[in-house]
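Encode chain A's predicted structure.
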Amino acid sequence: MKGKTYHLISLGCAKNTVDSDSMAQLLDKDGYQHVSAPQHASVLIVNTCGFIASAREESLETLRAIVAAKNPDQLLIAAGCLTQRYGAEVVQQVPGVDGILGTRRWMDIVEVIHELREGRYPRPLYHLPDSPTIGTDVSDTIRAARHGASAYLKIADGCRRPCAFCAIPLIKGTAVSRSMDAILADAHHLRDLGVRELNLIAQDTTDYGHDLGMKEGLVMLLQKLTESFPLSGRTERGLNWIRILYAYPGYVTDRLIEVMASRHQILPYLDMPLQHAHPDTLKRMSRPANMDWVHHTIAKMRSTLPGLAIRTTFIVGYPGETESEFQTLLDFVAEMRFDRVGAFQFSFEPGTPSEPLGDPIPPEVKEDRYQRLMLLQQEISLQINQTFIGRTLDVLIEGCDKKKKLYIGRSYRDAPEIDGWVFVEGQAEIGQIIPVRITGAMIYDMSGTVAI
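Encoded structure for chain A:
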């Protein structure tokens, strides 16, 4: 534990992972060295998640485990969403935390460590300045998280949507878009590192550029990205895949559909969390409740983008959700046949607009509805996957299981971490995009052989 060393644990979503990687870049530039074993680090950092109750508990449990094992010479800094909103509570529940850093000022990580080392302030040190929004970019810091040939690229942060159940505006403030030049510079850097797939992320990607005075800023950004990175061959260096995550219902416009259809680097994949299908439930959620728009837009996208894969997310057990309203959701899922579905049981969040509604639906009812929804979707997912048997898909190879002599990758239908895998027999190279003939289908995953 000599010198300047750090160990960083990142919890929660991909947006948090990007912040963690950005903090790591700042530490590296200040002369710190990352170590994989926490006992060998002089500085321990946990970038927490505070989105829902289960995530908060995971963050607290992680901090408690670190405190139990750390020695007096080590510094422990709790950063991220949980500490932004509940900094004092974190210190109360986890004695032994030395510093508190909120998600709005992740870029101050080096300053916080210096202040703790100098001992000018009592511990724990609270670094939670009154910043109304997320901090701006730091020079030479890439706002991305790279994993092999794939990367998450953050284009904005914060949110201005009024969703009643969500604490993100309380945690991060309103939406703040990054400049298009900064995003393009990051994309060039990632391409030079061998990245083949960009996953564009924000709390709401379809809101990109609104605060910068842009109309349909996401469309403009996609046009710039695809013009900057012409489509290359499977084995050549290039950004061949651009994936859009976290689109907001009602803001998937005709221009966005058109640019997705006309630019071959943009994958026919869209992640659009709908949250529910019954208009009354959606109104209580303060979410877009025009289901005619949903049906019309999805039909338009599917006719314009052959092979389109749609991922969506739903909340079950929202206050006031009747069995009839939940049945409407089941009927909607059965009708729309989404490729991917994620589901959450409602988590009561104090301070959000939904707080007056309470949490009246019993846990066992939430669990039952969750299981029924996921069972239905598993049947649909298996049936859809089976339609790909005999077809050839491009697959980005990301790993190898040497014991089973299988390569592991993802098709255009599979976003990192949240969707399925393609298990590939034959000769391949990690980081390449190769054609794979699909020979088997499971609920979430598929298998195949190299088709070269």
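The chain has three domains: 5-127, 144-386, 392-450.
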